[in-house]
Amino acid sequence: MTVPCGDGMINIRVGAIIIRGGKFLMAWNDAHPDYYFSVGGRLKFGETAEEAVVREVYEETGVRMEVDRLGFIHESYFYADGFSAKDKLIYEISFYYYMKAPEDFSLPCDSFTEGDHTEYLRWVAPDEPLTVYPEFFRTELVHPEREVKFFRNDERRK
Fold first, then answer.
1. Which of 9-18, 74-83, 114-123, 138-147 bottoms out in mean pLDDT, i.e. has the lowest?
2. pLDDT at 158
3. How confident is the model at residue 151, as a pLDDT?
4. Cis, peptide link before residue 144, omega less than 30° from 0
5. d(Cα 93, Cα 11) in Å, to the nearest integer?
6. In the chain, which residue ranges form alpha helices assigned H by DSSP?
7. Pairing of strands 149-154, 66-79
8. CA neighbours within 13 Å on the CB side: how many for 42?
9. Which of 63, 70, 76, 62 is nearest to 17 (CA)?
10. Domains of the chain, CATH where assigned
């Protein structure tokens, strides 16, 4: 869900936390091959955040997973780098959910098409020298906790 607001936009986003063998599942695309982001996406109007993350995981992995629990809420201001919104200020609220991945979960393929780009899935270790979003995954997913944590980033130009 993206809503224009003044000179910027508001995004409501969900992300999936899928962990296997100390690594977490991340996506990247051919437009930004050095930038990894959580499996997930924006809500569609009328969906709850949980419904959206289940849908997004299914669309990106081909596997229908249940939500285990909410792990993080992330509030962020940043400037867009995409072509349609280049340099627009974005206010984004993201809900990150731990998913119940089946024991035999494996990726049926490592890529899918999203809009004009091919997106890829990859298991990422916390200590790999990659740009990962959200950054707190590197530290927080090493020892997951049961409580919901809140994070805030603000990249507004002063």
1. 114-123
2. 58
3. 97
4. no
5. 6
6. 49-61, 137-140
7. parallel
8. 12
9. 70
10. 2-154 (3.90.79.10)
Task: State the Cα–Cα distance between residues 98 and 2, nearest whole angstrom.
Answer: 23
Measure the CA–CA gap between 63 and 42, rounded to whole angstroms: 18
**Could you identify the residue written with the tokens 């991945």?**
101
State the DSSP H helix or E strand holding residue 133, giving kind and residue range, or none if neither.
strand 131-133
Residue labelled with tokens 């916390």? 126
pLDDT tens profile 53-101: 999 999 999 999 999 999 999 999 998 876 566 778 999 999 999 999 9
Q: What is the CA radius of gyration of the chain?
A: 15
CB neighbour list of residue 13: distance below 8 Å, 6 or more residues apart: 40, 41, 42, 43, 92, 93, 94, 95
pLDDT for residue 34: 83
Once rounded to an integer, what is the mean pLDDT over residues 107-115? 62
**pLDDT given for residue 82 in this prediction:** 65
Tell me which DSSP letter residue 116 carries: T
57 exposure class (CB count in 10 Å sphere: 0-12, 13-18, 19+) = buried
Of 37, 54, 48, which is closest to residue 101 (Cα–Cα)? 54
Question: For the whole model, what pTM was predicted?
Answer: 0.90
